[in-house]
UniProtKB/TrEMBL annotation:
Keywords: Cell membrane, Membrane, Transmembrane, Transmembrane helix
PANTHER family per the UniProt record, alphabetical: HIGH-AFFINITY BRANCHED-CHAIN AMINO ACID TRANSPORT SYSTEM PERMEASE (PTHR30482), HIGH-AFFINITY BRANCHED-CHAIN AMINO ACID TRANSPORT SYSTEM PERMEASE PROTEIN LIVM (PTHR30482:SF20)
Compartments (UniProt record): Cell membrane
Protein name: Branched-chain amino acid ABC transporter permease
C-alpha cells in the first residue's frame, strides 16, 4: 500500500509540473526551466515550515507567490526571444537556481538539530508532516485536492477572456496583436501562472520527501516535464496530466531496465512527434469529442 501511495503522490506532483509547462506552451512559448521554479518553491516552503514555524498552507502559498515573482523576472526578458533561444534562456535560469542552492548554507540550531540548507548535502529534517501527525495517506489527499483546485482553475481559465487569448497568441501572434490583444501581458501572465504552479508543486515535493537536494532539479527533470506536455497534448489541460500519468506509469513498469528505459521514452516522444505533433489530446480530438457530445445531447434536447 505504501508503494502505491508513493507512486500516486509523485504522480500528482508531476501532474502539477506538467500543467505549469502547459500554460506557458499554450501561448506558443517553450520552456525547459520549470525545475527552477520547482526548486524555489521546494526550498522556500522548507524554510517556511522547518525554520520559520509557518503552517503548511501558508508555506505553499508563499512558495507559489515567490516563484511567481521569479516568473516575472524570467518572463520579461523572455518576451524579446522565442523558440530555441527562449528554451536555452529558461534552461540557464534553472541551472543558475540549481547552482545557487548547491552552494547555499544557512542553518540554525532548532532543538538538538541543525536545520536548514547545507550546500551539497541539501535541506534535511523537513518533518512538518511527522510533527503534525499528517500521514502520507492524508498528504496524498492534500496533493490531489491541490491538483483538483488547479484543474478547476484551468476550466475557468478556458471560459474566461484570457484562455482564448492564450490560444490566439499561440496560433498567430501578429494576428492576435492586430486584434488588440496585449501580447506582453498575455505571455507574462502565462509565465506567472506556470511559475506559481511549479512553486506549489515544489513545496509539496519537499514535504513529501522530507528532504530537498539540488540533484532533484537537474536538466533531465526539465525534459521530463516538457515530455509530459508533448506526449499528452496541447488541446486541453487534461493532455499534460495524461502525459504525466503515462510516463510516470511507464517509469514504474520499466524500473527493472534502469537507465535503459530512457530508450523507450525517446521512442515514445519520436513516435508522438511523427504521428501526433500536437500530442495525444490535440485540438482535433477535442473538436471530435465536442461534436460527438453535441450529437448525443441534441435528441434529448429535441425530445424534451
Amino acid at each position: 500500500m505504501e508503494y502505491w501511495i508513493s507512486v500516486l503522490s509523485l504522480l500528482g506532483i508531476h501532474m502539477l509540473m506538467a500543467l505549469s509547462v502547459y500554460v506557458i506552451m499554450s501561448t506558443g512559448q517553450v520552456t525547459f526551466g520549470q525545475q527552477g521554479f520547482f526548486a524555489i518553491g521546494a526550498y522556500l516552503s522548507a524554510f517556511a515550515t522547518a525554520m520559520w514555524g509557518l503552517s503548511l498552507t501558508t508555506a505553499f502559498i508563499l512558495a507559489g507567490l515567490v516563484s511567481s515573482l521569479f516568473g516575472v523576472l524570467v518572463g520579461f526578458p523572455a518576451l524579446r526571444i522565442r523558440g530555441f533561444y527562449l528554451a536555452i534562456t529558461t534552461l540557464a535560469f534553472a541551472e543558475i537556481v540549481r547552482l545557487f542552492f548547491l552552494n547555499l548554507t544557512y542553518q540554525r540550531q532548532i532543538g538538538d538539530r541543525l536545520i536548514g540548507p547545507d550546500g551539497a548535502h541539501g535541506f534535511r529534517y523537513i518533518d512538518y508532516l511527522v510533527q503534525h501527525q499528517i500521514t502520507l495517506y492524508k498528504f496524498l489527499g492534500i496533493i490531489y485536492l491541490i491538483v483538483a483546485i488547479f484543474a478547476v482553475f484551468f476550466i475557468l481559465l478556458g471560459r474566461s477572456r484570457l484562455g482564448p487569448a492564450f490560444k490566439a497568441v499561440e496560433e498567430d501572434e501578429m494576428a492576435a496583436s492586430m486584434l488588440g490583444l496585449n501580447i506582453t501581458t498575455i505571455k507574462l501572465s502565462s509565465f506567472i501562472i506556470g511559475a506559481f504552479i511549479a512553486g506549489v508543486a515544489g513545496g509539496l515535493y519537499a514535504h513529501y520527501m522530507q528532504y530537498v537536494g539540488q540533484d532533484f532539479f537537474g536538466v533531465n527533470i526539465g525534459v521530463y516535464f516538457m515530455a509530459y506536455v508533448m506526449i499528452g497534448g496541447l488541446g486541453s489541460f487534461v493532455g499534460p496530466m495524461l502525459g504525466a500519468t503515462m510516463l510516470v506509469g511507464l517509469t514504474e513498469i520499466l524500473r527493472f531496465l534502469q537507465e535503459y528505459r530512457m530508450i523507450f521514452y525517446g521512442a515514445l516522444i519520436i513516435a508522438t512527434v511523427i504521428f501526433r505533433p500536437r500530442g495525444i489530446i490535440d485540438e482535433a480530438l477535442i473538436f471530435k469529442i465536442k461534436t460527438f457530445l453535441k450529437k448525443k445531447a441534441f435528441p434529448l434536447t429535441a425530445g424534451g
